[in-house]
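Please check this chain.
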Amino acid sequence: MDQMSSDNINGLVLAVSSSIFIGSSFIIKKKGLKKAGASGVRAGEGGHGYLYEPWWWAGMITMIVGEVANFAAYAFAPAILVTPLGALSIIFSAVLAHFILQEKLHMFGVLGCILCVVGSTTIVLHAPHEQEIKSVKQVWKLAIEPGFLVYSAVILIVVLILIFYYEPRYGKTHLMVYVGICSLMGSLTVMSVKAVAIAIKLTFSEMNQFKYFQTWIFIIVVTICCILQINYLNKALDTFNTAVISPVYFVMFTTFTIIASMIMFKDWASQSGLKIATELCGFVTILSGTFLLHKTKDMGNSASGRGASSTPRDNPVFTSSGSGRSSSSDKIAS
């Protein structure tokens, strides 16, 4: 195993800090959404009353701090190192949801958290070194190569279909609609964020990158993608269980981001097959951990409520039947 470069270490520290803030922000924002939903139209139904809730803004500020740290991490380390470390945010989110929102965490959920840590460590120890980039124009050339252009076109087409066809019909009953939109756009966001982060890093090194129009195009893409993600993530948080949203969103977001990074930055081009296989094993371990968190979430609630009620308190994970469970408004008011 090669020694980690100083850039990778800097990226690691920033990514871990980011996960702590982002994982906490899910819980803080959820408290704001619950308070807003109790007194007005819920975000899942198109309401924006949460904008008047201090808790939601506190969560948003916490998320911004985390995203800034995450943003900086991409300037130093490859996406295949930074993105999987988002698994740590799942741990903080699930644990805080257990104690603050009373969304109980089953003992197998704890095992899932441990698997996330093991998988993240495996990826960190075998991550590729960041390739040397001397200008944002170099990133632009990577972005307009045929492979990445095809990937971007496919992502945009699928997102438009989800927004205009599936979201009006299935958004409130199928978690994958909201999370799919966030995850697909997220992969494009990360690639653009990395370009902007590199531009800022080079500018601070007295190589001004903001004189190039390519930098501003990347900034526009980041802005549009972030607005879309925030909007649909709010709807997902308001409609479905927090401890389920976090792992499912992480799995999809990380998968698409790694694919996008492989296509655009060719992260694995300089690595041996053994290292790539080890990183994939680490990623599968993380997926296993998130799967356990997802599958055992309702088990924790049913165990805690045993003897009091035979009806599950939480929304189903991917679908909601509407007739076989309590309403979301009842859950928010509880």
